[in-house]
Design brief:
single chain, about 130 residues, alpha+beta, three-stranded antiparallel β-sheet, two-stranded antiparallel sheet, 2 helices, about 50% helix, Flagellar_basal_body_rod_CS, flagellum
């Protein structure tokens, strides 16, 4: 039973990191940089299978887009040609990922709760 709790716990940690990355992406979706500067890079989480019964691990990664170059000559950050750079982040995609990450976290939390209940029931049998 403790394996189930540790595996689900690693899943919860993975989904929490995924939720943090999505929140960071949404918060910076409209971050403007100068036309010559690099745009905010989308935060990604790469899930990998752990060793044996250890669950999953999460590694952070960055997107590889250059961002969107937009002509805004009145923007204070515009380069000499009048361009600024926005991140290439699709908010509707981020919201879909947010729902998936939230549901994954909830599912792993339910596994922990059920394993805890089963463990408590086994302790009651031993006492009785």
């Amino acid at each position: 039973m403790t394996d189930a709790i540790s595996i689900a716990g690693s899943g919860m940690a993975l989904h929490r990191k995924w939720l943090d990355a999505i929140a960071d992406n949404i918060a910076n979706a409209n971050t403007v940089r100068g036309g010559d500067d690099a745009a905010f890079q989308e935060r990604l989480i790469v899930a990998q299978e752990g060793e044996g019964l250890t669950g999953v691990t999460a590694d952070a990664a960055l997107g590889d887009t250059e961002g969107l170059l937009v002509y805004e000559p009145t923007n204070a950050l515009a380069n000499a040609a009048g361009y600024v750079r926005y991140p290439d982040i699709d908010l509707s995609e981020q919201m879909g990922q947010l729902i998936m990450a939230q549901r994954g976290y909830q599912a792993n939390a339910a596994v922990v709760d059920r394993a805890k209940t089963a463990y408590e029931a086994a302790l009651q049998i031993g006492r009785g």
